[in-house]
Write a structure and sequence with these properties.
This protein has 302 residues and is mainly alpha-helical. It is built from 14 helices and no strands. Keywords: Cell membrane, Membrane, Transmembrane, Transmembrane helix.
């Protein structure tokens, strides 16, 4: 298995973990406040991953710390939006709306490099907007605050993916991945100290939620993502992450008995289709298939 394939496989495992995260966030928010949950999630993840990779942290340089500060700050912004959003919408809705990250990545890349997005990206955006409408708009044509915050989180997360892809190229990516967790947790603790009453989970369900979010979704998830992105592209990363809402719905259905309305399923399908449309270049796929077919026919005739 080559390095790029290994990186993509690692990102797929991470995607499964993150598909479960919306359910566990809802569980945790029953007993723990929003910034407190972020502080616990990323603080514990930093301690766990820092313990495993402590030898790398000893030799950390200022550049890595600086990069980790910026990534941790963006990461905190992402999860402040998503955590508050999950509180006011369903885990299924959150999963599909956050998957719009995959649509935002090529749009932002096009904007940063001042070139028009490809036609498939434009089509993906139109499908996504239609899907969001079916998924979130009620009779009053108003998106509720939870859905809006999840969409905002998706936009910030797209920025995070692009910035991560740039910053991992010339520093130790694992050290960077560990330190960013510490900075994200520190921001959560700071906001919680000023706006909430920080506390440890008080119920078994809340502890299960925090531990799952800390170990699998954060300690393993973000360190693996940061390390794997060094060997793959932001577009490939986005394509694999497009499966996240599928896992989110499966977890929400299996463990929380969540079900979408018919209109919701139509919207969810359109959002997923928009993600796939944005990431898969059908022209290249068809061209490759045509090339292979011509080669086979040529071999048969000779």
């Amino acid at each position: 298995m080559n390095t790029g394939l290994k990186a993509n496989f690692m990102l797929l495992i991470v995607t499964i973990f993150w598909g479960s995260s919306y359910l566990f966030m809802k569980m945790g928010l029953v007993a723990v406040q929003e910034f407190n949950l972020i502080a616990l999630r990323f603080g514990m993840a930093f301690i766990l991953s820092g313990t495993v990779f402590h030898r790398r942290l000893i030799h950390v340089d200022f550049k890595t710390i600086k990069y980790a500060f910026w990534l941790g700050t963006i990461l905190f912004s992402v999860f402040a939006s998503i955590t508050f959003g999950v509180k006011f919408t369903s885990a299924s809705n959150a999963g599909f709306l956050v998957s719009l990250t995959v649509v935002f990545v090529p749009l932002l890349l096009a904007a940063f490099f001042r070139k028009m997005p490809e036609n498939r990206v434009i089509l993906g955006v139109l499908l996504a907007l239609t899907g969001i409408g079916f998924l979130t708009l009620k009779n009053q044509f108003i998106i509720n605050s939870g859905d809006f915050l999840c969409i905002l989180g998706a936009l910030i997360y797209a920025i995070y993916i692009i910035v991560t892809g740039k910053l991992t190229k010339d520093v130790d990516s694992i050290t960077l991945g560990v330190l960013q967790l510490g900075f994200a947790g520190a921001w959560g603790l700071l906001f919680s100290a000023f706006l909430e009453q920080p506390q440890l989970p008080s119920t078994t369900e809340a502890w299960v939620s925090v531990l799952e979010l800390s170990i699998f979704c954060s300690a393993i998830g973000f360190v693996v993502q940061t390390a794997a992105q060094k060997y793959t592209t932001p577009t490939h990363t986005g394509l694999l992450f497009s499966l996240e809402p599928v896992f989110a719905v499966l977890f929400a259905f299996a463990f929380a008995d969540e079900r979408l309305t018919i209109k919701g399923y139509v919207g969810a399908g359109l959002v997923l289709l928009s993600v796939l449309t944005t990431q898969i270049d059908l022209k290249k796929v068809l061209k490759k298939q045509g090339f292979r077919k011509s080669n086979v026919e040529s071999e048969l005739t000779h």
